[in-house]
Design goal:
Blueprint lengths: L3 E5 L4 H17 L12 H9 L3 E6 L2 E9 L14 E9 L8 H15 L4 E6 L3 H9 L3 E2 L5 E3 L2 E9 L6
Parallel strand pairs: 4-5
Antiparallel strand pairs: 1-2, 2-3, 3-4, 5-8, 6-8, 7-8
Amino acid sequence: MVLIIARAGMEAIPETDVLIHETADWLIAKGEPLWGPNETSSEELVRVAQAGELVIGRVDGALATCMYLHAEDRLFWPQAASGEAFYVHRLAVARRFAGRGFAHAMLRWAEDEVRAKGRLYLRLDCEPRIKLLALYQNAGFARIDPRPIQVGQHFVVRHQKCILPSRS
C-alpha cells in the first residue's frame, strides 16, 4: 500500500471536505471534539487550496489523508519570525487507512518541504490529549509549552521540530 503525497488545488476540495468532516464527526462521536464549525468550513478549505497550502495523500487514487501546511500562523505563533517555519493544521487520516503510519508520513513530507524551502522549523499545535501528544513526540517534535496555553477558545500545546541548522 503506497501513499502518494502532494500539494492539491481546488479539484481536491470536495473529497477533502468530506474527509475533514468525517474526522470531526468521528471525534465528536468518541466524545473528543477537536475542530469547531469555523475550522471545518468549506470557505476555509477553499482559502487553503487557493493559497497552495492543501496537502493530500492518496492510496490507489483514494483520498487517505490531508493536512494544511501554512506558510505563516500568526494566531498560534504570534512572535514567530516570518518565513522561518511551516505550520501543520487539520492533519486527518481516513478511518479506513488508520493505523498505517500515514500521519507520520505526512509529517515527514512536510519536513521535506521545510528543507526544500530553506525554512528552519516545522510547527504545530494540538489539544493536550495523550494520543496527540504521543504522536508528535514520536515524530520527533519538541514540546514548546510546558502547560497548555489558551488561543481563542482552544487550549493547546505547541510543538516544533528543527529541520535545518539555525541561520546565524
